[in-house]
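Hi there, hope your week has been kind to you so far. Thanks so much in advance, here it is.
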Amino acid sequence: MHVSSGEGTETMDRLAALLIALFCLLATVLKVESEGLVYDYYANSCPNAEKIIHDTVYKLYEKKGNIATSLIRYVFHDCFDSCDASVLLESSKGVPAEKESHSQVGMRNGKWINNIKKAVEDSCPGVVSCADVLALGGAAGAQVLGGPAIKLKTGRKDSRVSLKSVADTGIPTPQSNVSFVLDYFSKMGINTEETVALLGAHTIGRAHCVSFEERIYPTVDPKMDPVFASMLKYRCPQQKTGAEPVHFTYFRNDEQSPMAFDNHYYVNLMANQGLLHIDSEIAWDSRTKLFVVEYAKDNALWHKNFATAFTKLSEHNPLTGTQGEVRKHCSYTL
C-alpha cells in the first residue's frame, strides 16, 4: 500500500496534536495534585461529584432532618487536627479510634455519610474521598437548613489513622473558656469575628444535659436567665452523686427554630439564654460581645462570616496529592 507524502504528513500532525493534548491533560492533573486543595478538583475525574453529594444530602434531609445538623458537627470534629475523615474510622487492631473519645459523645448519623459516599461511588468508583464527602456534605447541610451556599475547594485525601488519644485532648469542650477557643481557631487562621460566627452553628441541633449541667447544678449560673434555667432543670433533673452520666437526655439549642440556620442563637445570647458555658461567655467577654450584638441584628452578616470561617475550617491541614488514600467505605481503610 502506497502512502503519499501528504497523507504521511497529515498523520504525523494528528499524532503530534494528540500527544500535545495528552501532555496538557497530564500537566493539568499533576498541577492539581501539587497545588493541594483547588476548586473543581473532580472536574475531569468525576464532574458531577459535588452535585451528587449536594442532592443526596437534600434527599436524606427529607427522610431524616437531623442528618444536616450532624454533617455540620462532623466537619468541626474532623477538622480539629486535619480534615481527613479520620473521625469516621472504626477502631482497628485494638487501637481506639477518635469516635471512642469522650469528645465525640452525642455524635450520630455517621451511617448516612456512607450513603452519600455510596452515591458518589456508584458514579465514580474510587475517585472521591470521604474527607471531601464530609466537607461538602457539611456545607450542603448548612444550606439545606437555610444557611449560605458555600463553595469549597476539594482534593482532600483520607487518613489511614484515627486515634482516640488525639481527640481526647484536641477538641474544645462545652466548658472551654473564650481564650482557649479563640486561640484554638486562630491557629487555623480564623479570627475572633469569624470564631463567633462559627459558634453560631449552635443555633441548630441539641445539646445533652451533661454538656451544661454545671450551669444549673448545684446552683444556677448568675449569667443565666432564671426562667430559662427553670426550663433546663425541668428537662434535665439533677443526677444522683456518683451516678453514670445520662447521655440521651437533651435540650434543643434553639427552642424557637431548632432546625433553622438563623441568628436566633445570638438573640438568645443577648437574653442570657445561652445553653453551653462557651455560648454564655462569648456574650459577656469584651473580645467577642461586639460580634454577638452584630450578628443578633444582622442575619446576612452572620451568614457571610460563617461561610468564610467554615471555608477556612474545611481547609485546615488536609492530606492532599499522594498523601493518604481514597477509601471505598468511610469507616474502614483500604
